[in-house]
Specification:
361 residues, alpha/beta, 2 domains, six-stranded parallel sheet, globular
Amino acid sequence: MAQVEDSVVRFGILGCASIARKVSRAILLTQGACLYALGSRSLAKAKEFAAANNFPPEAKIYGSYEEVLADKAVDAVYIPLPTSLHLEWVLKAIERKKHILLEKPPALNVEELDKMLKGCEKNGLQLMDATMWMHHPRAAKVKDILHDKEAFGDLKEVHVLFSFRAPDEFLKNNIRVKPDLDSLGALGDLGWYCARAALWAFDFELPQSVTALPGVCFNEAGVIMDCAATFTWNNGQAASFRCSFQSCMTMKVIMQGTNGAIELDDFVIPYTEDIATFKFHCDASFVDKSLGWICKHQEHEVKTSTPQEALMVGNFTKLVRGIRDGSTTADHKWPDMTRKTQQLLDAVKLSIEKHFCTIYL
């Protein structure tokens, strides 16, 4: 096998999930990262996946997850397994001193997540969840405007919608509708992005209360297919979201301030890899006799030559390299974001179970 530079971070992937196609490509696109190993429960499946997704010929292909973790050359693992398997394999990765890039939702509940975070903390390991949109330069541009008191003012409310109309095959066979694999369903899959967007807009200050809204839809196995919730803060700020496997594809965020408003129509996955847009309007006023209204409207365009998933891998790689060479320690910002997002999902789920009672954090 060709020798890999010592400065390169070697990635191992556990499983051949569909999302791993995107992240394996991202690793290939990232300078300083090496797509080093892949493991599946079937060696034949792993070989087929590697061939179909442009793995380098020297990549190690294993017929089990254990073999990837046992490979001492692997620095970090990407784990796209069903959520019900995350705790087991994250803890095993921690035992082998591997840094962890983890698909969302990271856990079935915050108790599971805390076991992972405790292990990473004890062993000086970096954990980051794979919420890709946060790494796009558009996010930084939006945050600059959110913090502009003159243009945007004070943030008052956030509304988030993430949905897609799942085909029958998905609703019957996808892991996200199976209670033994991903029991959080649409709440864990799509609701994760919604809760993260609200927290991100409010600089990760947890709300005071969480209330799920009536009308939750479950499949026959009791997994959430469609739900909505509201969050409130002590100072009157509020957020709401809906996530659904039953509505047309929508990825929208509206952030309302005292002086202006920001809208993203594709916040999870930009319409195109190289250009992402958002709208900002301010200075609104009624026209004569209130027969209409006008505002100052801006369309911002943020270009990037690197897809957001590769930017995520790049940021994770830099953290791992710094820890490995001793120049820094694990960045607690990322697991803190993960935990707060998980707390919100737990609260929404508990509110649903308690017949839509308000849950106080």
